[in-house]
C-alpha cells in the first residue's frame, strides 16, 4: 500500500481564500479539510487530480490592425495550455468577428472551443 500524501491548496472561488488540506493516496483524494463550503471541496478535488484553467489570449486577424481577444469556452486541463497557445498562434482569422463567435472548435483536442470576447466589424 502506498503512503498517504498531503497537498495544500488555496481556493480561488471567492475572496475568503480558504487554505485547504487534501489527503491523497494512489492519485485518489481521501479527504479535503479546512474548506468553508462545498465549492472549495469540489475545487480541491479537481485541482489535485486534474488541474483546469481558463485560457485567455489575443490573436492576429487578417486585414485588421487590432487583434481579437479570445478565451476558451470552459477551463481546459492545465497540462494542455501550451498546445492551446500553439493553436492560437496558428489561427488565420478573417473579419468580421462577433462576440461569442467560435474561432476554433476542439482546441488541442480538449473538446473545448475558442470563442471571441470582442467584436471586430
Ligand atoms: S471554500 Fe468556499 S468560502 Fe472558502 S474560499 Fe472557497 S468558495 Fe470561498
Q: What's the topology here?
A:
Blueprint: E1 5-10, E2 19-25, E3 28-33, H1 38-49, E4 52-53, E5 56-59, E6 61-62, E7 68-72, E8 76-77, H2 81-89, E9 93-94, E10 102-104, E11 114-116
Parallel strand pairs: 6-9
Antiparallel strand pairs: 1-2, 2-3, 4-8, 5-7, 7-11, 10-11
The protein binds iron/sulfur cluster.
Taking the alpha carbons of the first and last residues, their distance comes to: 61 Å
| Name given to the CATH homologous superfamily of the largest domain | CPE0013-like
Ligands (ions, cofactors included): iron/sulfur cluster
Describe the sheet with the most strands.
4 strands, antiparallel
Quote the average pLDDT: 96
Helix content: 10-25%
Number of strands: 11
Fill in the CATH topology of the largest domain.
CPE0013-like fold
Q: Beta-strand level of the residues, as a percent range?
A: 25-35%
Rough outline: elongated
Number of helical regions: 2
In CATH, what is the class of the largest domain? Alpha Beta
Strands side by side in the biggest sheet: 5-7-11-10
Helix-strand makeup class? alpha+beta
Detail the poorly predicted runs: none
Helix-strand pattern, N to C? EEEHEEEEEHEEE
Total separate domains: 2
CATH architectural arrangement of the largest domain = Roll
Radius of gyration from the alpha-carbon trace, in angstroms: 18 Å
Amino acid at each position: 500500500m502506498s503512503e498517504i500524501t498531503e497537498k495544500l491548496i488555496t481556493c480561488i472561488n471567492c475572496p475568503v481564500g480558504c487554505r485547504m488540506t487534501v489527503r491523497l493516496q494512489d492519485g485518489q483524494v481521501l479527504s479535503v479539510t479546512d474548506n468553508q463550503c462545498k465549492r472549495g471541496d469540489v475545487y480541491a478535488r479537481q485541482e489535485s487530480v486534474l488541474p483546469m484553467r481558463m485560457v485567455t489570449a489575443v490573436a492576429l486577424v487578417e486585414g485588421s490592425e487590432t487583434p481579437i481577444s479570445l478565451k476558451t469556452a470552459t477551463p481546459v486541463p492545465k497540462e494542455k495550455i501550451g498546445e492551446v497557445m500553439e493553436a492560437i498562434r496558428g489561427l488565420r482569422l478573417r473579419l468580421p468577428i462577433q462576440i461569442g463567435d467560435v474561432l476554433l472548435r476542439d482546441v488541442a483536442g480538449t473538446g473545448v472551443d475558442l470563442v471571441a470576447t470582442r467584436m471586430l466589424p
